[in-house]
Amino acid sequence: GLVFEDTRILIANTITANNDVEWLDWDTEQIVTLDMLRDVDPDNLELAVSGEVWLKMVKNRPDLAQEFAPKIRVFGRCTPIAKVSIIDMFNKEGNVTLMCGDGGNDCGALKTAHVGIAMSEAEASMVAPFTATEKNLTAVVDVLKEGRCALASAFASYKFMLMVGLTHNVVQFAAAYFRLTLSPLTWALHDGGWVLSLAFSLPLAKASRKLAPSRPTSSLLGSHTMHSFLGVLIINVTFLVAAFFVLFGQSWFQCRKWENSFMGTAWGLGDNYESTILFLIPGYQLMATAAAYNFGFAHRASWGTNLAFVFFFVFWTILQLYIILVPSELSCLLSVNCQEENTILGMEISNVYNTTLMPLDFRWKLVGLLLANLVVVCGWEYFVVNGGEMRRTRRRCEEVDGAWKLHHHQDEEQRRPLKPGSSDQLLSSSPSSSRKRSGAQIV
Predict the structure, then answer these.
(1) Basic residues bias: where (predicted)?
(2) Residue among 234, 376, 194, 401 nearest 292 (CA)
(3) Is residue 141 part of a domain?
(4) What is the pTM of this model?
(5) Is residue 216 a contact partner of residue 152, using CB atoms and an 8 Å limit?
(6) How far is the C-alpha of 113 from the C-alpha of 90, rounded, in Å?
(7) What is the pLDDT at residue 136?
(8) How far apart are CA 204 and CA 294, in angstroms?
(9) Which of 70, 202, 221, 394 is the most exposed place for a label (fewest CB within 10 A)?
(10) C-alpha dist (Å) from residue 236 to 123, 222, 248, 380
(11) Residue 52 to residue 15: CA distance in whole angstroms
């Protein structure tokens, strides 16, 4: 319901000669003046006003209209002009407004509100961005779920693309340190394959079935965003450094050595084990990062329901494992596990050893590092970042529930049901309500 049972309800009765609002107590039928109203506890008070009185208040006492608008729970018998005036007042106060209407005289208010939902396929649907064909108020919940899903997906894409840029920077810094570069085809696979497909499919997640008790973050530099982003970045850099330490600890490893003939082409600086690590590890880290950000948390559907993303993730993972474990012409194109017999005509191995083949046991170590990186990144995002937010949300809800139960336990003997009234009767609150209602009903 809109109002708790033990809440005091005042109805705007009329506008006095000196342009003050005269209020009528719903329970006692006592006249309440403006000065008396301001002395009433605002936490235990709800206001109702008719459209006629509201327009007079806006015209004669705009200061009172601005003061009482957030406290008015029900606006009754409103004309189209009154409805537009009400929405406009809330918009001017910096609120985000949502308006539902069944068409006809609701068109102006539907257009004025930030979010308009038409419960009809008639003319109202032409000015409202959303239309509910079933004419059910549950459409409001659907719009909120879709909006929150869109916001969460936008932030997931934002964090992923930010991570792509920083990952490429890390690769470039490491390449400059080792005085080498990746082959052109590896960069093409990075940007044209992995990044393009994952960035395209990541926002395609559907909305969650249930409306979460809190909205997703809207801050680019908020704690939730920064914990998610910086945590994944630190984990990825740590695994990249660990991969180099594992490589340098191998008995067969030799640092890259060049001849002058290798320096005339970009391919000449990519045939070495350091470039192999810089291609394989950061490349799969992009996939692991996208997989972590694909978690729906409370606002998007579960991980596996984003079928387009699952397809690309599985496809690129299998391809990456194939490149690592199986020496072939494909791996030679990417300067990984390349031998003379696997080279393509005209693409010789540009190092003094004439090979970039890694021992099988080391290839399995790389696979273990990649999968461990995936598990740690997903665990950080799921349990630490999203799990921490879920625990904070649950704690806030429990605090509100506890305060509500304590308040109603103390006032249990003083509760009075609402008096039966006309068709504009206010709805009583549900015993399962957990917090003070927000929003207003315009009829």
Answers:
(1) 434-443
(2) 376
(3) no
(4) 0.79
(5) yes
(6) 9
(7) 82
(8) 10
(9) 221
(10) 54, 21, 19, 12
(11) 10
Question: What DSSP letter does each residue of 409-425 carry, written as one string?
Answer: HHTGGG--PPPP-STTP
What is the distance between the alpha carbons of residues 75 and 62, in angstroms, rounded to a whole number? 16
Q: Is residue 127 part of a domain?
A: no
Indicate the burial class of 113 (C-beta count within 10 angstroms; 0-12, 13-18, 19 or more): buried
| Distance of alpha carbon 79 from the chain centroid | 37
pLDDT in tens, 391-412: 666 566 555 555 545 554 455 4
In single-letter form, the type of residue at position 16 comes to T
In a domain, 254, yes or no: yes
Q: How far apart are CA 7 and CA 23, in angstroms?
A: 15
Q: Which residues sit opposite 75 in a β-bridge?
A: 49, 442
21 φ, ψ (degrees, to nearest 5)? -90, 130
The answer to whether 119 and 109 have CB atoms below 8 angstroms apart is no
Order of all β-strands in the sheet with 130-131: 98-101, 115-118, 130-131
Place of tokens 């994952």: 198
Q: What is the DSSP annotation of 124-174? A: GGGT-SEE-TT--THHHHHHHHHHHHHHHHHHHHHHHHHHHHHHHHHHHHH
Q: What is the pLDDT of residues 348-404, one digit of tens each?
A: 666 666 778 899 999 999 999 999 999 999 999 999 998 876 666 656 655 555 554
Confidence class for position 233, pLDDT limits 50, 70, 90: very high
Under a CB-based contact definition with an 8 Å cutoff, are residues 336 and 276 in contact?
yes
Query: What stretch of H or E contains 25?
Result: strand 21-25
Q: Does the pLDDT value for residue 151 go beyond 70?
A: yes
d(CA 166, CA 406): 51
Min mean pLDDT across 120-124, 158-162, 218-222, 311-315 is at: 120-124
DSSP H or E segment with residue 98: strand 98-101
Euclidean distance between CA atoms 187 and 112, whole angstroms: 49
3-state secondary structure of 20: coil
Name the domain count of the chain.
Answer: 1
